[in-house]
Write a structure and sequence with these properties.
The chain is mostly helical. The protein has helices at 3-36, 100-121, 130-163, 192-214, 221-249, 252-274, 279-286; strands at 42-45, 54-58, 70-73. A three-stranded antiparallel sheet has the order 1-2-3, with no helix packed on it.
């Protein structure tokens, strides 16, 4: 297979994979928004109520006496079965914690790096050069850094400057899990979990797996098959988290703003793997030159 044929197949596979990714993630997010119906924006509570395994406060309610102002997770509460599940799938709770939030999206390229090093040390032929691999690895680290320090820390700071602080008084201030009574949560707060799920964890993993379909990971098809299985499971738990975020913990506006921010990472990665432009960047990161004479 010539370089041009490889690139064409790489782009075809990339477009299909990213198309499924965008359709699936968007549908799950919208399903969560419709499930919410503008009724919930929950925060964990320290309230101890008899018969409740855990409780949540609905900050959209104006008084404590309103229906669903306090959500009680009990054996008889079937309306919130997902929210009140006694246990979750393995790694589900780790998605939002460090170092897992960085290591999970990097798993395919870490595996590739270990096997590439092994083959290089024993003078075995590999499908790509070490320099190309390192450039791509650093590229992914750059994305993770941008997501963490600019799209999280930086935007949260900017949001606070624009939106302002929380009100001084509210009915639930004493019930929050924070060290001091607070009304934090009533103000607009874009969904950073949406940015994390759809702008960090899934797209980096997907980008490397699309590349692996044409430039195999050293170690044979078994390694690729295992990573594809892990990717399917990662999509399941990540999209479960996205649904729960949209269904219970943020307003529709906050989720949609988070989604728009995540597109600043998703769209360039998809464009890089679907289009025939950005040939120089693609060649640096993946070892493919553009079929076109100009980018």
């Amino acid at each position: 297979m010539t370089s041009s044929e490889k690139l064409a197949k790489w782009q075809k596979n990339g477009c299909k994979a990213w198309g499924v990714h965008f359709l699936l993630s968007f549908c799950v997010m919208v399903a969560g928004i419709f499930h919410n119906g503008g009724k919930f924006k929950l925060i964990p509570s320290k309230l101890r109520i008899e018969g409740c395994t855990k409780t949540f406060i609905n900050v959209l309610k104006t008084i404590e006496e309103d229906d669903d102002s306090i959500i009680c997770c009990s054996e008889n509460n079937d309306s919130f079965s997902l929210l009140c599940a006694p246990s979750y799938p393995p790694l589900y709770k780790r998605l939002t914690r460090l170092p897992d939030a960085w290591l999970l999206p990097l798993l395919p390229i870490i595996v590739r790096g270990v096997l590439l090093l092994w083959h290089t040390l024993f003078s075995q032929k590999t499908s790509e050069t070490v320099s190309t691999y390192l450039r791509r690895f650093n590229f992914y680290l750059g994305i993770l850094s941008v997501r963490t320090f600019i799209l999280f820390v930086g935007l949260n700071w900017l949001e606070e400057q624009i939106v302002g602080t929380s009100p001084d008084q509210c009915w639930f201030a004493e019930y929050t899990r924070r060290s001091k009574p607070t009304c934090r949560g009533m103000e607009f707060d874009y969904s950073d979990h949406t940015v994390l799920y759809l702008g960090q964890i899934l797209p980096i993993f997907l980008t490397e797996m699309v590349h692996a379909a044409i430039v195999p990971i050293p170690g044979g098809q078994t390694v690729t098959y295992v990573l594809k299985t892990i990717m399917a499971y990662l999509y399941f738990i990540t999209l479960l988290g996205e649904f729960q975020t949209a269904a219970y913990f943020h307003t529709s506006e906050e989720v949609l703003v988070g989604y728009a921010i995540s597109l600043s990472i998703q769209v360039p990665l998809a464009y890089l793997q679907c289009s025939n432009s950005w040939g120089r960047i693609r060649n640096k990161l993946f070892g493919f030159a553009s079929m076109a004479s100009k980018d």
